[in-house]
Amino acid sequence: MIPLIFYDIPSKLEGNYWSGSTAKSRFVLGYKGLPFRIEWVEYCDIAQRMKEIGARQNKLVDGRDGYTLPFLNDPNTGALITDSWEIAEYLEKTYPEKPIFPNKSKGLIRAFDAILMNLLRAAIKFPLVRSTEIMNERSAEYFIATREVGFKEKFSEFSPEGPKREEHWALLEQMFNTSKEWYDEEGGKWLMGDVLSYADIIIASRLFWFKRVLHDDEWEKIANWHDGRWAKLLADFEKEYNGV
Ligand SMILES: N[C@@H](CCC(=O)N[C@@H](CS)C(=O)NCC(=O)O)C(=O)O
């Protein structure tokens, strides 16, 4: 099997990886044990690279149209795929071993993905601010300029320390409180009890993003919510992951 080519965004961090959106797809590749190699694309170069490849446009987090990562090229089939959901669907269909949508759960997990994104969107400017701190300089400059346009707000107003930041923390906590209620329904290690699914990969990717971009004390705060279950979930998932 020829290794798949996965496009991801580098950073100043050791180990490079940081993005929660791209982690979703990378974690599926790793969980399924598929061989892959990374093409690193700076944030500011995504549109240019994707245009050259002939990728399709997507929706950006602020609602505008644009080119996005994750992007997957599967030389075994010739498939070129944009968007984490479509990549998950493609990998499941093409490489069905170790299913990520067990028991016909795809529709429900799609709804879960959308609801979780809505909960996250309300608080997202805080982790976006932290993300710019770990991006390489060119990308951080591009990111700040384009997000100011997209959100029609000055970057310094995104999540300044004080009441606005506190509100973002409250919304983040709300997202995890809601997730805890959902996880408690089956009471197992994973959302579907003892069966791992793409729902857990979505949560693990968000946690991965927070762990990588937030300051240590901020990550510790999340890691300790609900008796440490979120740090444990990420660690449990990492044990299932066979990627780079
Ligand atoms: N719905 C898309 C969202 C992906 C997304 O927003 N990716 C960001 C990187 S984390 C991006 O490529 N943004 C390009 C830009 O803002 O110019 C997915 O799940 O793949």
TrEMBL record:
Residues 9-99 form the GST N-terminal domain. Signal peptide: none annotated. This is GST N-terminal domain-containing protein. PROSITE patterns: GST_NTER.
